[in-house]
């Protein structure tokens, strides 16, 4: 089997792949975090997409604080200045709400919110856009979470990452998400009390 990722994604293909192939396949689910993709490859085999999604949720919930911030920093800000430089999955997610080419007023508003959020929390604002109906809902959550308690916001942001990964996985595996895109269960994290890196 050539040491490149298969063109199509399935759990059976993931389980059969070499470690490097499996990690490359997981890059389609995990946003620019090869260290987490390799952990998923090492955790195989998975019974099905739900099993992999549950593993990802558990793994993210047990990340150290440094790992959690590293994972969040791998995600692009909303309406990035260079949209061609973000992953195809992120382009698709942001493009659905026309965040890649916003009008001037929205662009200026998002730039301001991005700066304030990053300054306050130390990582980009992450939201599961697949679960949002329109940009007004996104802005409302952005403004609400901007002033959130740091520990609570870290847990919230990681929950959004888990939701993004679940949705990407469901799309790739041809499965239907079990909810409208929000995390399936209340997400908890120990990241605020741990400090080691990946």
From TrEMBL:
Catalytic activity, EC: 4.1.1.97
Entries under Gene3D superfamilies matching the protein: Oxo-4-hydroxy-4-carboxy-5-ureidoimidazoline decarboxylase
Membrane-spanning intervals of the chain: none
GO MF terms held by the record: 2-oxo-4-hydroxy-4-carboxy-5-ureidoimidazoline decarboxylase activity
Entry superkingdom: Bacteria
Reactions mediated catalytically: 5-hydroxy-2-oxo-4-ureido-2,5-dihydro-1H-imidazole-5-carboxylate + H(+) = (S)-allantoin + CO2
GO terms under biological process: purine nucleobase metabolic process; urate catabolic process
Region (Disordered): 177-198
Pathway: Purine metabolism; urate degradation; (S)-allantoin from urate: step 3/3
Oxo-4-hydroxy-4-carboxy-5-ureidoimidazoline decarboxylase domain: residues covered: 15-170
SUPFAM superfamilies cross-referenced by the UniProt entry: UraD-Like
Keywords: Decarboxylase, Lyase, Purine metabolism
PANTHER family: 2-OXO-4-HYDROXY-4-CARBOXY-5-UREIDOIMIDAZOLINE DECARBOXYLASE-RELATED
Stated name of the protein: 2-oxo-4-hydroxy-4-carboxy-5-ureidoimidazoline decarboxylase
Organism: Roseobacter litoralis (strain ATCC 49566 / DSM 6996 / JCM 21268 / NBRC 15278 / OCh 149)
